[in-house]
């Protein structure tokens, strides 16, 4: 995915575009560029981060412009492949997020008609198509060009001598931020929060013409009105707020995120808010889908459903499900996605809908594509998550799952009351983990010297072992694998040595004894052992090389506190290794390609 920005108004566009692009870097950061229009186009782009581009850029005059930060798909990161992309006359510039599936045939056709291409990107065909169809009306040319295009796009088109921006979207997000005699276009809300909190979400098939003080949106040639929304996120929420990295800030926000996410759902009188779609009496099984960290939330959800609801439940990777997964009748599908834009999730949702099933979406981004497809959307209240590594959004997702399944659960009143009490205590338990990071710091320093690490867990903490490994590998570049503890002896034991630390999660539930046995097996094979265990579990002391203590908690909630400890462990390990924590190499915040 990439980040795109457009500005039209009364101010100089260059600093605004560059500032907004810096806020969009989590969407891609291998190259970037801007274009400003007066009587001619001025473009500055390179295969560098936005900060470097800003330093090197000459002062470009103009109050209308576009910008792009790229996550390469077609063509390596280079100055030539960086956006904006122009037509042959160098009068039309385009920034694009998405994939043009038929770009090769379009390119061949356009080349045979005399168009000369400068880059290897799919995007460049759009500029040339607009040039081909332009007959004095830019909007019309864009509309006609897009009829030839197959794939996904959010585009902003700028033309020399034209005081307007033409925008269009299909399967890629695009918003218009409304200012005072100025307008902003962006792929995501955090980019423009410094300027406005009033936005319009474009819908698939929309083509719009944006000027300083007007906005005209058409669909299939007919003018449409799109609702204006007030964004509740503040500009401060999308800033580091004194923390060295967004990831650390977002880890520390988790007590508040838990409180915010539960507010309104878990009233003080103990009645759990009902949720109609889950209560549908026809539902006989549940399918939970996600990718990456959101898949790990789905797996935690599976254990929660098994314990609280007791109906058949599957948790699947959306990317796999899309190729083989069957949806039995009377199945309720739940998709989990922080961004609400992940391509594999969107495909899975469409499949579920086609099979006749209803879909509940759990997402953090209001107005995201999933919320438009889902039958019902539950918004997590994590606030903007900027770091590529998902932390607080995962926490909010599993909070929603606890609440949702409690509302559907058939457990007795006493158990429900205990669970509600546990939920209310969660923020302070998480705070305790955050306040006691001394041992985690020590273990992180130690871990930073290794290249291979195993994480093991059992039961509801098996997904947390997967999540701990994912967090460590993506930000520290240490090879880490999460395993169900009982599986190590079925192969991975061959890799255990003094150079392969194992991090074992010991929960205070029916898996504890088996886990202690696994730990002994690992110990006898000489692997360094770090154990994550509840306060007062003394048995682990003599087995482990290091013990990270977490507060005691109802076992069903143990994923919450264990996750926080493992997030901190990954963060500090990556910091010791000097890694670019918020922007790990080759990764982007949401993955809008299959
Ligand atoms: C994890 O830290 C990653 N950011 C990644 O695995 C992420 O969870 C995955 O790409 C799914 O994204 P989504 O929640 O926006 O769908």
Q: Please state the average pLDDT score.
A: 92
What distance separates the N and C termini?
11 Å
Low-pLDDT residue intervals, each spanning 5 or more residues: 267-272
The geometry reads as globular
Across the major sheet, the strand order is 3-2-4-1-10-9-11-15
Structure characterization notes:
Helices cover 35% and strands 22% of the residues. It is built from 18 helices and 25 strands. It has an eight-stranded antiparallel sheet, with helices on one face. Strand 9 and strand 10 form a beta hairpin. Helix 4 packs across helix 5, helix 7 runs antiparallel to helix 14 and helix 9 runs antiparallel to helix 16. The chain is globular. About 1% of the residues have low confidence. The structure holds 2-deoxy-2-amino glucitol-6-phosphate. 2-deoxy-2-amino glucitol-6-phosphate binds next to helix 9 and helix 16.
Write a concise keyword list for the protein shown above.
seven-stranded antiparallel beta sheet, 594 residues, binds 2-deoxy-2-amino glucitol-6-phosphate, alpha/beta
Short description:
This protein is of the alpha/beta class and 594 residues long.
Structural topology:
Layout: E1 3-8, H1 13-23, E2 31-37, E3 41-46, H2 50-56, E4 64-70, E5 85-86, E6 92-97, H3 103-112, H4 124-133, H5 138-147, E7 153-159, E8 165-170, E9 175-178, E10 183-186, E11 198-201, E12 206-210, E13 215-219, E14 222-224, E15 228-230, H6 246-252, H7 254-262, H8 276-279, E16 285-290, H9 292-308, E17 313-317, H10 318-324, E18 331-337, H11 343-354, E19 359-363, H12 369-373, E20 376-379, H13 392-408, H14 413-435, H15 438-447, E21 452-457, H16 462-476, E22 479-484, E23 502-506, H17 512-523, E24 529-534, E25 546-550, H18 558-576
Parallel strand pairs: 16-17, 16-18, 18-19, 19-20, 21-22, 21-23, 23-24, 24-25
Antiparallel strand pairs: 1-4, 1-10, 2-3, 2-4, 5-6, 6-7, 7-8, 8-12, 9-10, 9-11, 11-15, 12-13, 13-14
The chain binds 2-deoxy-2-amino glucitol-6-phosphate.
